[in-house]
Amino acid sequence: MKETETIFLSLINQHKAIIHKVSKMYMNDVEQQRDLFQEIVMQLWKAYPTFKGKSKFSTWMYRVALNTALVYFKKDNRKVDKIPLDENIDLIDVIENELKEEKLAYLYKAVQELNSVEKALIFLFLENQSHREIAENLGISEINARVKLNRTKEKLQFIIKKNGYEF
Amino acid sequence: MVMNFDDLKNEWNADGAEETNISEDMLKIKQAHTPIDIIRRKMKHEFNYQIVALVLMAGIPYFFNFSTNMKMVYMVFYAVTCGFTAYYFFKFYRFYKNSCDMSRDSRKSILWFFYEMKLNIELYKSLTYIIAFIGLAFFAVYLFVEKASIFTKIMAKLSTTYLILNCFISILIIGAITELWAWYYYGKHLKRVKKVVDELDFEN
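The joint structure predicted for all components is written out below.
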């Protein structure tokens, strides 16, 4: 058991960026991001016996992490998700000198206006997944994945533009 | 500032993991928060309450000083209630122990959540109906046996239509309370999962 735990922790630490990114995509508030992060880690650990090594560990992680985020709910029903970009200036202030990080910070804020499936689509797109891989991960047809992704990208563009960026 | 998806992709991929290390403590930190885990926890609490209720119910004949005949009738009803409860508890226990394979594709995983939750909420409702009707039936028998004289007088004064109407309204009230309670206690979680299923199933 101890050995399994050690192997699991080593694997998960190599790919923890995936969990961080999913948490930030799905939760706006830092406290809730931390809770979701822990939840994903726990669900990954619970599901680890099902990992047979047929796919890459990271591929398996994408699925468990996204599925957990899709059905994860906090008691207060994620009210913070609806905070408009401009009201969360402090986060932007901290990183205002880092233009690149600012772009990502705005992206994280903008995706809060998407629904949970749209967040999953954008996440997988940013992770360089093809339409076929996105379709396989979400369990939808490839055509549907392509159309949904295009619409979601348009929606995201609109949100970012609405908040004062050129896109 | 100008943004485009290629830029965002590059910056996204360049964004490394934060410093926090995932330790073994994190594997056992807290209770799970998926809707199915919430429902499982609630069902576990209800299981405990119902065990306490069944134990207390065993004392009712002595508390209300039932006659010997009435005690026998009560024990039959009590045994039937315990039998149904045990059957449903066995089903709930299997649901409680059954875990979802989260590594399947999202649609399969979420549909699994949805139908497992729906099935168990329906089981929960049917158990509530059964117990409510057993309770009502026992109450009717109690009136008929223990309070026969008063019961006959009341029955003589009331028309058949009025009695049937009363039974019908009672059933409706039991139904409404059960549905509302199940909705309040479990339904809102089901609704949230259904929303994700609909979002996935939505064809453009």
